[in-house]
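Incident log, structure service

09:12 report received: a user says their structure output differs between two submissions of the same chain.
09:20 pulled the input from the user's history:
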Amino acid sequence: MRRSSAVVVVSLAAALPRLGVLLRERETILEEFVDKSDRFATTLVEHGTFGFLHGVPSAYTQPLYGWFLAGIYETFGRSWQAVGLMQTLAAVATALVVLEIGTRLRSTGVGVVAALLTTLHPYVVWHDVHANREVLDGLALAVLTLLALIAYEHDSIGMAAATGAVTGVAILGNARLALLPLVVAAFVVWRVRPGVRALAMASVLVAASALVVAPWVVRNRIEVGCFALTTDSRALWKANNLNTYDVLDRGGWIDDVPELPGAPPWPELAADLTLAGRPTTVDECAQMRLYREEVVDFWREHPGEKGRLALQAVRLLWNPVPSESDESGSGLARTARRTIEPAYMVVLYALALVGLFVAPRRFVALTLLLLAYNTLAAAGFAGTARYRAPWDFLLALLAGFALAWIWERFRQRRGGYEAVPPSAAT
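09:34 re-ran on a clean worker, output below:
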């Protein structure tokens, strides 16, 4: 397949299913399963304040998705059409980046297959047009992966800086990626010699990431009162206390965990109370420290329970059947989550396992590092399909290599030749 044809095929495969879901779910796009960044974006556009209330700056979420929505609302207005179409474009961009990765590593054919597996993922097709931040997480991670591979292949300090900058953008979208620059740097410089150059490349990557994140952290110190990626350590506590395991085990989510006795209203609740005529102020930084200390105490005093939670989080993260308390969307969407999605993921897992043995070693190494990082992050926080889906393009790429290898073996046997180990695995 020619490159231009591949781009057209992948773009249409990404766009058309999402446009269909967008039309079907148009009444729910801005009503159900909406990230709190929507409120931040609305307040920013209407009042110039990034927070829940006019004149009350907040750091209670990662900023990237809120900025993205604010750009849409400022330009096109707050509508399901604008959000759905712009997020569909983000999904198309993600698929095209995956196409580029597969093409660069092996061939256009592998790139097309991997891109189609990525973009036709049933869970992602539905979620990509709804107002939740994972659509940007997936795009940032795909670009990060492409740049990291280029930096590794060319031993380039410039590409290491670009990789670090994109990693910083990814952190602004997801605070759980805060330590990811260290992991990516280790991969990029793995074979760089001499050691001084390796140290320089790694330092540049980490520094570029820090430079991208620094303005947001400094803004929080000036406007909110403390250096922080997000002040929402309450979410971390929700995922790390004595009630969490039972709530998740019966199918709930961390939002269903009982509140900390005696704790003050969290910023979103305080904003709701204020808008309802009961003015309520909060100290986000003090709350951040309060919940953080509660988490540290839990880890120290109940290591066995934390171990159980970590294992549960890993199981929920990798479970092919999505386990979520949210039941938004049509009955068809809910049915697809329980039938089509698990079948799709079982096949993808099986092909990805084969891909580990036939894909290029440098890509396998990077994939294992990234997936291990996400798994450890889930063990520290919580696991769900929503947190795994942005990383599934890595599995799709492995599956693309596996299918190419299977096809080559089939052709060789039909031609009467013995299959040979794939050269790409060297």
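09:41 both user submissions now match this output. Likely a transient worker issue. Closing.
09:42 reviewer note: Residues 229-426 form one domain. The chain is about 70% helix and 0% strand.
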